[in-house]
Design brief:
The structure holds 2 protein chains of 2 kinds. Chain A has 13 helices and no strands. In chain A, helix 3 runs parallel beside helix 8. Chain B is 77% helix and 0% strand. Classes of the chains: A mainly alpha, B mainly alpha.
Chain lengths: 279, 281
Amino acid sequence: MPRTNFRSPSVLPGFWPAFSYTVLYLSLIVLIPLSAVFLRSAASGWGHVWKTISAPNVVASYRLSFGASLVAGLVSVVVGFLVAWVLVRYRFPGKALADALVDLPFALPTAVAGIALTSLYTESGWVGRYLAPLGIRVAFTRLGVVVALTFIGLPFVVRSVQPVLGDADRELEEAARSLGATRRQIFWRVIFPIVRPALLTGFALAFARALGEYGSVIFISGNLPMKTEIAPLLIVGKLEQYDYAGATAIASVMLIASFLLLLGVNALQRRTRRFMEAE
Amino acid sequence: MTARTADPGRQTQDPPLVRWGLTALALGALALFIGLPLAAVFVEAFRKGAAVYLAAVRQPDTLSAIELSLLAAAIAVPLNLAFGVAAAWAVTKFQFKGRNVLISLIDIPFAVSPVVAGLMYVLVFGAQGWLGDWLSAHDIRIVFAVPGIVLATVFVTFPFVARELIALMESQGTEEEEAALVLGATAWQMFRRITLPNIKWGLLYGVVLCTARALGEFGAVSVVSGHIRGRTNTLPLHVEILYNEYNYAGAFAVASLLSAVALIALGLKKLLEWKTGQEGG
């Protein structure tokens, strides 16, 4: 049955069983259920979809989800770069522990992160009690959403930048220095261009993850209508009222945004890999 | 992934003041964003004493949540492990049309919001879903029951093993397997003696990540669970219920169990990275 031009010849066995199983499993678990979301949206008609997603509370939730994810992504880029820099370039006691801690948000269940962050940032919490006298409220505000999304996004930036920074050729910096470049010039002209694609990848990954994040946000946000409701929460709300068409309409917009981001990340990663291979 | 400190002799480039200032800033940020939330879980869990903690952990609802979480992981992890090996074999050892598209498709579950993941299965298997009439005619419940929870868990942990293996096997090429075949090995011998030993640490690494996520998934499972206490509650859902009932000590006690799992996973991850680093050179 194998067609001749579909794949290059190989002596290795097992292509067709492995390939067919991969496509079958992928279709059953991912592709077919996912298509249900789009087909459902299309079935309810574009008018209905538009009416749902242009409702004021939905627009407010999109604004919050995209806005807070953007801010959290930018904070993650700055803090994540600093952490990656210190972990790659310096030696200090407890470095292995700090490095391991970076991955915690990947491993910690989001609901656990959510209640832990909330307990820290309420007015009697470890952090909140110092912010309250300054008039800064974090728990149950938009700022709280940003804090939770930064927790989620930080490791993506650190883990994207770290290997690139580790592989960067230090001789370039030496050369720049010997040619009389200042430290600032070396940073912006030599180091920054090398890590820029990795920073962008980290940002896009953090942003994409933040956009769909649910568990860590819903506790600290307080879910005040029109103020701190994120888009995934509205999907859950519509589902609880058995408004499947409404839930699906909100979800379709999120899915399209996620896919565009995924495509962007893939393109970026291919570029980064080429760059690193060219070294 | 651990960064290489290539040449210690060159580490004195930055003046000490800059070095210590940046290190303090970075460690402060890590402590604030990541260390404090972790510490808060355990402090809050034991705030009312060990007796309250143990009572919360031993509660029947908690025990049944542990059971369901373990069940979901016990089904999801082997399924995704088998898929991961098959996908990585097809994608890395052969060149075919649409290969890059397939690799991108495998990553989709990472890009989909957990809530949307839950919604998809409700749209397929729910009462108003594609298969809703057929399922109710045959008295099969998937959504708002255990099978739905398992499915949602399979979806969110779908790419972990595949992704790990694809990156690893891509770098290993096909020469060793080809040599084995030329020397007369059967397909099974080749896989068991050549491929498996080459990928075993990456495989374990993927399994660790997959298991941690399977036990901790919240959003997707929350949508398909129906929140039936003692029947369709996993550990993270149980945390939410206790928290919303203002039983903070109980919520954090259960959360501390999940945090312990996360810490074990991180420890194993470090160990495996160290192992692969050692074997890699």
